[in-house]
Amino acid sequence: MKRAIIFLILITFLIASIGCSYEDINRVIFVITIIIDVDEHEMVHVYLELFHAYRSNKENSEMGQRIIMKETGSTIGEALDKVNKSSSQKLVYSQNKVILFTEKAVKHGIDDFLDFLIRDQEMILRPYVAVVLDDPVTFLQTDIKQNEFIGLFLFDIFDRPLSFLVPAHQQFFQEINRREMGRNVTFMTAIKLNTEIFHPKITKASYAILENDKLAFFIEDREILMGMTFILDTVNQGRINIPHPNYEDKLAFVLILNSKTATSIEYDGNKIYLKKKISVKGTLDDAQGGLVLDKATVPKIEEFTKEEIKRSCLKAFNKFKDEGIDVFEIREVFNRVYPTIDIDNPLEQTELMVEVDVFIEGSSGLTDFNSQNIKYPTF
Amino acid sequence: MNLSKKEIYHKKYNNRMEFLNKEFKGSFDFKCRELQLEMGKACVVYLDSIVDANYISDYIIRPLINMELKVADVKNVKFELYSHIVETVNHEIEMIEAVLAGNTIVLLDFCEEILSCSGRKFQVRAIEEPPTETVIKGSREGFNENVTVGCSLIRKRLKDSNLKLESIFVGDKNNQVIVMAYIEGVAPQKIIDYVKKEINNIKNDYVFHQNIIEERLKTKYTAFDTVGYTEKPDILVSKLVEGRVGIIMEGTTFAIFAPYFFVENIIMADDYYLNKYGQNYFRLVRWISALISLTLPGLYVALTTHHFSLIPSIFVFRLAVLRAGVPYPTIVEIVIMMFFFQVLREAGVRLPQAIGPAISIVGALILGDAAIRSGLASNVTVLVVALSAISLFLIQSSMEPYLFGVILF
After folding, report:
1. Which of A13-17, A280-284, A312-316, A349-353 has the lowest mean pLDDT?
2. What percent of chain A has a predicted confidence (pLDDT) above 90?
3. How many whole angstroms separate alpha carbon B212 and alpha carbon B209?
4. H-helix or E-strand containing B45?
5. How many CB atoms neighbour CB B182 within 10 A?
6. Residue-by-residue DSSP string for A192-226
7. Measuring CA to CA, how many Å separate A65 from each of A28, A30, A82, B329?
8. B-chain residues within 8 Å CB-CB of A66?
9. Less CB within 10 Å around the terminal CB: N or C of chain B?
10. Chief subcellular site (chain A) (predicted)?
């Protein structure tokens, strides 16, 4: 009996082991960046930035090297198969940090590529997605000083908490979730090379708005991006320029410390009212010509900030309403609240109502010590 | 032929002498001191190596010589002897057992009875701090090989009339004395009866180590200890107070107690003497290290062969580079390094104390470094195996780490 049990355990262990694919960490090549491009013949070009660990017999030491590979196929899968043919070791996608689409690819439509990226078991859902505005070869050959791997550099940029009032960078799973909701409107950060001064740099240039997986337009307008951020409730930190409370020709800057946007929707049978209640906490960051933060100035700053936020939100909303692109997922929100009412494009009937509440804090919450009933200790 | 009483006693005396000489033939320390008393002959029999010679001279031989008996009665002889224990032995076999136990036998040719007097003096080691259970704060007394000393250390701490110290003899030929300690009314009667039954069922000729008892008391088909052991009387006392049954055996420094639970591996002797918050933290550390020791090598193999996505990128690349020159799969690498460690540990334990640390240095510095340089293992593998091995030793029981080591494999 004992022998039978031991035998069974061994067999189970062996079967379980055979089912798994074990590859030692030094016997694989890690994919860090995937760039997907498409040409006029609708052939898919896949560019890969790879990490390969090897032992150099020449140097007599262990090394890691960056490899760039490119293959073409009618699908991504075919192109990757070709890459595998010229690779000494198996490609592993667990460290894939970014999936980049070229401008041509987003114009063509990313739906042709998404199925492979979602369905393939080796692929992961964590990478950030972005649009690259440059030629992929030039882009990958650029020597970035901050990191020798462009994928890792981009991951650092995207993964860092936002310190600007721009929409959050999208990860692959967010992108595919968003496209399933509402009217399939998504957005991606667009990046480009900047070779103008000193070393080449990669910078966030604009945002690509995609409708039905195809590029609708790029947005560069700072105010629209700020409005989008407040409406989509993705504010982390950022600065808002407001008029100086004391001088007409000067500016002051408010640093947004945190913000929360509550959304509600109402339908009166004729119009849809999208209500956004934005609560902002900020502090005065900087003012041209200086500023005394006193009882009279703080309400002014709060008022200017409110106006600025409100204006940006309305500008962003009107831009998308004019373009007919439901980036704020109004249809999704409307369907959740009014599941029985079927309106094909609720955006056309929607009006944005913004209510902003701003609290400006100083170095201390207490700005007027004289009028406060403070009891000082007596000795 | 009718013999008088005196003749019968004299004959018995001679037969007993003959029996003793035959039994102890070849034992240099067997001594018979024959005395001519007023009433007849007497013989003082003992083993010289385990008795106190002065005690025998002063408290047994001297009173016998000075004895002035009017009636040849064993009761009167008993009254005359100064020895603090004088018992009557009824059988020759018991007589032999008494001599072997360090008692002094007094044979008289004018009485039928045999007298057994105390006077034993075994060589005992001083009470020292046990090397396997050192504490920062707390009692430093440890058991020695003497069962009486062990009992005295327990009694010193537990002044309770309910404390029972029952002696049981095991081993058909060597009659080893063991003492079963428990507190009546605290220890469950079921456990007391079970332990007694198991001890009485031991049918070995010779019993030298309590491992035989331990084996009988242990739960079957488990790799973990279900019987605990300690070298410290304060720990044994604390276990007795909790209702356990303790067993002390002549000739060993360890006292065993039952039942024993897995969680006790994590509890250390000085946990109760030091700051409770600090010690709770260290208990947590011990639990974590038990977990590390069991799972770290497996986790490492799983992460570096399959679940790469769970490792931060920077570390993945570093791991890949560090392993680039290693020709074997990770699992083989781990097994090799763990085998190295087992060899080193076994060597460290078996070697004399003076050479042991040297072996540790050779193992840690030279072998580890050489294994990396030769491409047999990567730095991280050595780190993982070393951490797992060190974590093993945070577990209290000296046997448990070995067991964990085996499970690890």
Report:
1. A13-17
2. 49
3. 7
4. strand B41-47
5. 26
6. EEE-SSSS-EEEEEEEEEEETTEEEEEE--HHHHH
7. 13, 11, 21, 21
8. none
9. N
10. membrane
Selection from B241, B283, B289, B288 nearest residue B264 by Cα? B283
CB pairs under 8 A between A and B: 69
The answer to whether A379 faces chain B, any CB pair under 8 Å, is: no
Each residue's pLDDT tens digit, A172-199: 999 999 888 877 899 999 999 987 777 8
Rounded Cα–Cα distance for residues A289 and A40 (Å)? 55
ipTM of the complex: 0.81
* Burial state string for B16-54 with b = 16 or more CB within 10 A and e = fewer than 16: bbeebeebbeeeeebbebeeebebbbbbbbbbeebbbee
Decide: B171 and B207 in contact? Cβ < 8 Å. Answer: yes
**Min Cα–Cα distance to chain B from A78, Å:** 24
> Among B308, B313, B325, whose Cβ lies nearest the Cβ of A25?
B308
The residues that bridge with A273 in the sheet, in sequence order, are A266, A351
Instruction: Name the closest residue on chain B to residue A63, using Cα atoms.
Output: B321
Taking the C-alpha atoms of residue A252 and residue A286, their distance in angstroms, rounded to an integer, is 6
Q: Which two tokens stand for residue B366?
A: 């030279």
Question: Nearest CB to B305: which of A22, A54, A126?
Answer: A22
Measured between CB atoms, which of B319, B321, B323 is closest to A63?
Answer: B321
Do residues A265 and A273 make contact, with C-beta atoms less than 8 angstroms apart? yes
Q: What is the mean pLDDT of chain A?
A: 87
Mean pLDDT of A338-357: 90
Provide, as residue numbers in chain B, all residues whose Cβ is less than 8 Å from the Cβ of A26.
Answer: 319-321, 323-324, 326
Neighbouring residues of B359: CB distance < 8 A, sequence distance ≥ 6: B344, B347, B348, B351
CB contact under 8 A, B316 and A64: no
Q: For chain B, give every domain's residue range.
A: 5-117, 147-270, 275-408
* Partners of A219 in beta bridges: A207
User: Mean pLDDT, consecutive 10-residue segments, chain B of 409 residues?
Assistant: 77 90 87 86 89 90 83 80 86 87 88 88 84 82 89 89 88 84 93 91 85 84 83 92 92 90 82 84 90 88 89 91 88 86 80 73 76 84 88 67 54
Tell which residue, B83, B78, B9, B7, has the closest CA to residue B46: B83
Q: Is-contact B133 B147, C-beta < 8 A?
A: no
| pLDDT tens sequence across A193-237 | 987 777 888 888 899 999 999 999 999 998 999 999 999 998 888
Q: What is the model's pLDDT at position B371?
A: 81
Contacts of A278 (CB under 8 A, 6+ apart): A230, A259, A260, A261, A309, A313, A354, A355, A356, A357
Q: Which of B25, B132, B17 is nearest to B396 (CA)?
A: B132
